[in-house]
Structure prediction request, 573 residues.
Amino acid sequence: MCKTNFARTILPDGLVEALDWMKGRIWSPVTDDMFSEDVVTVLTLLLNQHDLKDANHVFVEGLLNTEDGEWVPHANKALNPVRCAIKYRYESLLETLVDYCVKNAKKYHPAYMIPAVQCLNELSKQYPDILCDLFRRASYVPAPNSDYIASHAIMANMRFSDWLTFFTHYFSLSLFKGRVLQHSKCRKINHYEKPVFSLRSQLPYQSSRYFDFRNIESPMHKKRSKHFPQLESPKDGPEDTEAFSHKIYVVPFPKMSSYGAYQPWYKKYTTNRVKSGFTRLSGGSFFDSPAMQATLEFKWYKYGLLHWTMPFIIALAFFVFMMIVTALQIISATPKDKGPFPVGHEPDLEDRNPQPSAADIERRYLLNWRWSPYLIMRAVAYVLSVVGCSIFIHYKPGPNTPENPDNGPSQIWYMSYGILALYLNMLFELRVFRPFGVPVYIILKIMWRVRWFFMILALFVISFSHALLHLLHTRSYDICEGGVCKDDYPDTYPKNFGRALIATTFFLAGRYEPIGNSLDAGSASLLAMMVVFFTFTSLLILNILIAWMGHAFTQCKEEGKEAWHRQWSEVIA
Prediction:
């Protein structure tokens, strides 16, 4: 380690030419404006090479510089092992060295990436895949110089109390004074809860106009040196010894952090316009980033939690209400007490239907959601429960008596399936929490991936049901065999095709009672058909289905965290 002149730039010779070559090769379908929109963290600061020619090297040096002004490690092109590995085409050694640089940069200091940064030109020409992986992994390296970052970065969003104070001052004073108050936020990082910072090669400026408060991350080009001069050496006097207690996250998605509630950024902008520079370079997944989790966590506690809590309380209240209705239906002893409502209040029963109020309250929340399994399950749970509750209140089902031989429907299946859907809907509502969100994603993803096998299995069930109906229908038998007349065959296998499908489906679980008589009698044709059925379904199809589901589970488990981030962002937005 040695001290270096603070006026020197850390950029290697030929970096501008290398990045120009990379830009023409990798971003050919992307415009220059899109290329220079979003630049993040230490390595990706180097992507926007045009703005690194002037005074921006001071900012980069400030990130990589230690407190005592020493570099870790010292940059030496002649003794660079990465350059030697590229020169002699040792690809495995090159991958090991790059991995060493990234891991030590994460563990100790970002300056450990200097050997790899010096060879961007060679990597882009000979090993572009390693270069893409380098940018993807190194973009997650946090910048440890907290004092420098805290004074040269801005908050992604203000806390609610800060917004309330700002609007209170604005509406109370600006109307009388005839001017807009200047908006300036506190720069002390410890004054914010769970801070998430966004670093750019063009340092952002703080808004001084009311209508510009949503664009607090707007870049500043020409007036950068005026708004953010080089930091002066500390003057003599008492130093601020306040402990730095927050972890710095460098947000790779600056656009996302400026969007508030009820703004579906994932629908308004395309992927290329929202992703940062390094994701366009490496082709990495949009949600596969620790910084994305930090951004979502910040937005969740800022307004997403309240946005989710209000409709969840409505869903929970509706769930408890339906549970009370069904519980009272089960535990009641007399027919007149079936259900929670008195029988004699017929005119008021229509007013007790909770459907209009629930629909009015959740209208905005439902419209904000995309068409998804969660929305379908919510609609099914609410509609079936409300319809079943209305039928239950209207008919007051109970045992048939001589005075009332037809006491409504014998089974209210709307209510039963509505109860089942309510439980599943409550599980889906809790997917914003990771212990619930990842398993929910895995279950839905597995069901979607094996959907064709379910269709093949259904085809086998339909074909064997049809074949069994025909086989048993052609059997000679007395319709009143044994002195007892039956509607079904002597084997109790149903004549109705729908019921036959259900009976054949139960064969998969080993329930062969509907054809037990023919099996005992040793019907050769039936035995042969059951052997074929057992071979194709129980041995072949079901085992392949289990193996495929296991493979899908392994893949979905690896994608679970990323998918949970995606689900979480949809709920927040």
Notes: The chain has 26 helices and two strands. The longest helix spans residues 524-572. Strands lie at 154-155, 197-198. The first strand starts at residue 154 and ends at 155.
